[in-house]
Structure formats: structure tokens, C-alpha cells
Design a protein that fits this description.
Number of domains: 1
Strand content: under 5%
Helix content: 55-70%
Radius of gyration: 22 Å
Number of strands: 0
Structural class: mainly alpha
Shape: flat
Length: 96
């Protein structure tokens, strides 16, 4: 009989990775709440967000050939493109 839970147990290196992630997370949460340390960590937080946004933009550029973008005339005669994207992503426009 095959034990299905055996497939869900992490191996040694996965366990090491999970422990490192947990340790860094706990250390960051602890340091973030110390007075003065937050101002030192803030630039790293901004840099992390910037890396995330650049990665998202790069992925969007890679997907662009598969996306039907509005023509120049359509962009100038309608809402700004970012406003239209924001309106499409609002919770009120999601199907119920």
C-alpha cells in the first residue's frame, strides 16, 4: 500500500529552505518593530517592491505580442490606458 502522505513530506533540502524562509521572516518581523531599525530596513523594502514591479513589467512585455493592445487613436479617444486597466481590475467588475 502506498502512503499518500509520504509524497507530501519535504525532503532534506526542502526542509532546510523552509526553515531559512521562516527564520528570515521571523527576524524581519522582529526587527521591523524595533525603533530606529525600521528606517534602516525601509530602503530594502522599497528595493524589494521595485524588483517585484520590474519583474511584473518584464513579464507583461513578454506577453505583449499575445495581447490585443488598443490602437493609438483608441488610446487618445478613451480613458488613459492605466485607468481603463484599473477599472477592469476593481472588485465591482469581478463576476459574482
Amino acid at each position: 500500500m502506498v502512503d499518500p502522505a509520504a509524497d507530501l513530506r519535504p525532503d532534506h533540502w526542502q526542509l532546510v529552505t523552509l526553515i531559512v524562509i521562516g527564520g528570515y521572516s521571523l527576524l524581519t518581523m522582529f526587527l521591523w518593530n524595533l525603533p530606529g531599525v525600521r528606517s534602516v530596513l525601509y530602503p530594502f523594502k522599497v528595493l524589494t517592491v521595485a524588483f517585484h514591479e520590474v519583474r511584473s513589467r518584464a513579464r507583461g512585455c513578454r506577453r505583449a505580442p499575445h495581447t490585443a493592445w488598443p490602437s493609438r487613436e483608441e488610446r487618445h479617444n478613451t480613458l488613459p490606458f492605466w485607468v481603463a486597466c484599473w477599472l477592469q481590475c476593481t472588485p465591482s467588475s469581478l463576476p459574482v
